[in-house]
Amino acid sequence: MLLAASILPAPLAATPSKQPATYDAGWLTWCINARGGTTLADARCYVEHREALVARQGVLLKKIEATLSIKGPDGTDYAKAARALSASQKAWEAFMSADCDLVDNVSGFYGTAVGLAGEDCLITHYLARNAALASLQQDYLDQ
């Protein structure tokens, strides 16, 4: 079970008193420590974290789409950028699905931990994509 140790978040020495936002990268570790670390509790933490990341991504995409729906500064083509955002999001979703399907099929987990590798894969992808979307908004569109 070395794989399990490599994908599960490292436990904190003590659970922080302040709960991070559910979509924050540190929330999963906080949740696992706060709920006692049973496999069922861990699985619930993974699902809640992924659901929060999906919702956060929706907020980020709506904000970017709203920005791209207006005429941009001279030299920009926000309509073309909006189409590129849509295409890149669809491609990202397809890649994430295939990548995590691969992880699901090679993880070797049995019993109650069978879905944790796949959830961890999804969470990793959502954290990265959400960071990229937030960076796009901040670096290029909030000017």
Task: Explain what this protein looks like in three dimensions.
- This protein has 143 residues and is an all-alpha fold.
- It has one domain (2-141).
- 69% of the residues lie in helices and 0% in strands.
- The protein has five helices and no strands.
- The longest helix is centred in the middle third of the chain and has 30 residues, at 39-68.
- Residues 1-15 have low confidence and may be disordered.
- Residues 37-133 form the Lysozyme inhibitor LprI-like N-terminal domain.
Order of helices and strands: HHHHH
Query: Over all CA atoms, what is the radius of gyration?
Result: 18 Å
Whole-number mean pLDDT: 86
Strand segment tally: 0
Give a short account of the largest sheet.
none
What proportion strand? under 5%
Percent of residues in helical segments? 55-70%
Shape: elongated
* Separation of the first and last Cα atoms: 48 Å
Low-confidence stretches: 1-15
For the record, the count of structural domains works out to: 1
Number of helices: 5
What class do helices, strands and sheet pairing give? mainly alpha
Pfam families: LprI (PF07007)
Domain Lysozyme inhibitor LprI-like N-terminal: 37-133
Protein name: Lysozyme inhibitor LprI-like N-terminal domain-containing protein
